[in-house]
# Entry
Amino acid sequence: MRISQKTVALLILFIFLFVVGTIIATRTVAYLEAGMSGSELKGFLVEVIAYIVALTGWLALFIYSYMKGDFKDIEGPKYEILDLEEKIVKAEKEGGKY
# Structure
């Protein structure tokens, strides 16, 4: 069975939402059991919202890169650079720079 890119992206999204939801629920219960006042709770909610926004951005970038195929050939770019360098050196030798 072949797993498609959409399936992997949805799996990553599900894991992300599960982990973030678990962290938020655990921290909320811990803070409420500690007897937070109203102002401390507001600060906590701002922290949680900032955390969710930042992680959502990183997750979106990761999924975009994965769907674009950036992780398919990780070794390819370094070989392309080496080939390009060889072409440049050869062109400079033919042009009389060396």
About this structure: Residues 59 and 68 are 14 Å apart (CA to CA). The radius of gyration is 24 Å. The helical segments are 5-33, 38-68, 76-95. The chain has a mean pLDDT of 80.
